[in-house]
Amino acid sequence: MINEQDELTVTERIRICLAEADAKALEVLLDPLTLSDTLREILLLAPEERSALLSLLPADLSAEIIEEAPHELAAELVEALAAPSAAAIFDELDSDTQADVIGEMDDEDAEAILAEMDEDDAADVRRLAAYDEDTAGGLMFAEAFTFAKTDTVGLVLRRFASDDDDFERYRGQHPYILDEGGRPVGVVSLRGLLTAKRSASLTDIMVQPLTVSVDTPLDALRDVFDLHPFLGLPVVEADGTLAGVLSRSAVDTAVLERSESANLKMQGLVGDEVRSMPLWLRSRRRLAWLSANIVLNIIAASVISAYEGTLAAVIAIAVFLPMVSDMSGCSGNQAVAVSMRELSLGLVRPQDLFRVWRKEVLVGLINGLVLGTLIALVAWVWKGNFMLGAVIGTALALNTVIAVSIGGVVPLLLKRTGQDPAVASGPLLTTITDMAGFFLVLSLAALAMPYLV
Amino acid sequence: MINEQDELTVTERIRICLAEADAKALEVLLDPLTLSDTLREILLLAPEERSALLSLLPADLSAEIIEEAPHELAAELVEALAAPSAAAIFDELDSDTQADVIGEMDDEDAEAILAEMDEDDAADVRRLAAYDEDTAGGLMFAEAFTFAKTDTVGLVLRRFASDDDDFERYRGQHPYILDEGGRPVGVVSLRGLLTAKRSASLTDIMVQPLTVSVDTPLDALRDVFDLHPFLGLPVVEADGTLAGVLSRSAVDTAVLERSESANLKMQGLVGDEVRSMPLWLRSRRRLAWLSANIVLNIIAASVISAYEGTLAAVIAIAVFLPMVSDMSGCSGNQAVAVSMRELSLGLVRPQDLFRVWRKEVLVGLINGLVLGTLIALVAWVWKGNFMLGAVIGTALALNTVIAVSIGGVVPLLLKRTGQDPAVASGPLLTTITDMAGFFLVLSLAALAMPYLV
């Protein structure tokens, strides 16, 4: 059937499969696509078609597609499904993904799915969802590969042999040995397993495991995995009992997601917006930040308002006001970006304020001199007034020094006061450089007035 | 000695250890610090002190510190060392890090280090450094865990047992079986090894390995690791011979680094700037983009210049010109950020231009209406002129629609034409929204002139 329709788009073919409820044809159609291509195709469909498709596909394939989506989008896709379909797909997700997706859902939808799940699994999800997202508890998965102190090497080998999935399913975790209280007291290396006798007790070859606590934050986890070559680590509750297993790749992924969402926050985008979200939600979230920005803009503009007399006398200045504030804003934002990166790499700490400021002042001086000279020449030639060029050039040079040196330290200052530098650095810097830029241009112009008119 | 100096800072203690060339005390001092803290302490030192410290520490510890640094900084630290020290530290780095760091160095310094290295290792580094950074070849490491088709399970187990480092040293790679021509023809799973007889031939339990080619790009590699649970994959040359091994975590790290450097590029920062770089280099790199920006600013400002007459008649408008352009610039940048993210997640493709445009126009309409009304009220109350409020409000509303809809598609358009959206989206969008904003405010004001003066 599908072969005869070469001229149809993938979307159209998907619609035919859905209309005929032909799961096999749908699978054949999606097979050559990567997961992200498949996800994109799904987003091209209407919401009810998306649900029909995810319900029609085998649950494990739908689960893979949903794992590919950012959590907010994943929750949206799952919420739109009927509870039994949703639960079947949910069962196939890793426990950490389950918890993340449940965390993004309405309580009602979440409860409907948890009610359809196996009781133990549902309890695991509830437990994982309760931890903060960027901690070991929020990033770990619940399934551990555990043994008792009385078990032998042979038992581990039999568990490996009997397991349907390969070892990699455990994402590199080792067999952990728990004491009677459920506390991890040993870990056996693969080399140990491979070279020991089958009859050997695990306690003979086990070593003390390195553990992390459920509330260890992401940065500390990154340090632990940097220092140690392990692919996974056992995570323990405050009482020392095993809570789950944290994989190196979960930490890598969380660091990536945090960096990407910092990028969105800088533009005032809260949460991780994707275009499939409802229009009103997207619009409202963006507006919150923009309306706060209006207030900052009014403050900056009031500087211009105070100098309307000067401006009226030399109207050409109005041409250069936005240029000076925009150019110094750009210079300042470069310094902000370098500081944000050095903060995230751990190359500077909030305490290094003065050192950063000193380094940036020098860059600001050089770049201010160059840019100021350039714009002075432009203003002089364009408007035929040397003094106008001097005023604009001097203002840009000074304002570049201000913007660059303040831009470098603003993220550190915000971090120091417990604010999120990604959210507030940009608006704060822009307001300062706008005000300073308008003030410098207009007050210098007022001083030089006799030569300007 | 150190115990008596509790009031000294870490930096001062480091200086004492360096002065006394006391390697042991230095190690004790640095031991409680994380790698990123250690790196930060090193950056607080003068360049010659940094070199002294890295030469004084055991080479494997210095190597760990250098691995923690971004490649450009790592190259800078290594270049400053005497060639024998540099080579000793270099020997301890993974082959993929060696290649990355060599790639950032001057040819002369690179050759000096390669000349001190073991010939085979140096050849590996040269080979790895020749591949593009964000391909399988550029991300793989050279050390593979390989066996011949005639080898037995017992031999693999003996290799495990004899190896000084644990299995994790191989970052999760499996034993690969090569044919006589050096082509990977099989891979054995750990489960296979654990459950087979020692005398079994590897060919009995091996399966066909999934391989990637040296020139596979990062996005495709991410897809492969998304689809398959492997921790590592063999990388092959065009002729099918084994070139190296690619680990999942190398791909994760590369994706993170790309996302972070896209963030810097948006502010016109080429390469990955860190503050320890020479002042002139940092200044010059930032200026290149800023001076191009001046030209765009002049184009936008020329719109104001064309309306100087209107502006002179209603000078209050000058107060709102930067507000309108700045506010719509912010709205547009939000749309740019969402598109950049959806592009990097693979949720949109450059072809989805029209769909994205339609989605953004709606957000632009709502937000334009809200922001336009807000600013209209502000202008009316502030300047006591209802018509002025109407002009400014209408201009902002229209310009928000323009900014948001263009902001959403600019990254897709740039990508489609082969440009890097991270570099050009911002300046392009700002120029368009500035021009449109100035034009809307001033032309509407010109129309409404009788009611404004």
Automatic annotation (TrEMBL), chains A, B:
InterPro entries: CBS_dom, CBS_dom_sf, Mg_transptr_MgtE_intracell_dom, MgtE_N_sf, MgtE_transporter, SLC41_membr_dom, SLC41_membr_dom_sf. Residues 205-261 form the CBS domain. It is a multi-pass membrane protein. PROSITE patterns: CBS. The chain crosses the membrane at residues 361-382, 388-414, 426-452. Keywords: CBS domain, Cell membrane, Magnesium, Membrane, Metal-binding, Transmembrane, Transmembrane helix, Transport. It is found in: Cell membrane; Membrane. Pfam families: CBS (PF00571), MgtE (PF01769), MgtE_N (PF03448). Gene3D superfamilies: CBS-domain, MgtE N-terminal domain-like, SLC41 divalent cation transporters, integral membrane domain. Homodimer. Acts as a magnesium transporter. Belongs to the SLC41A transporter family. This is Magnesium transporter MgtE. The gene is mgtE.
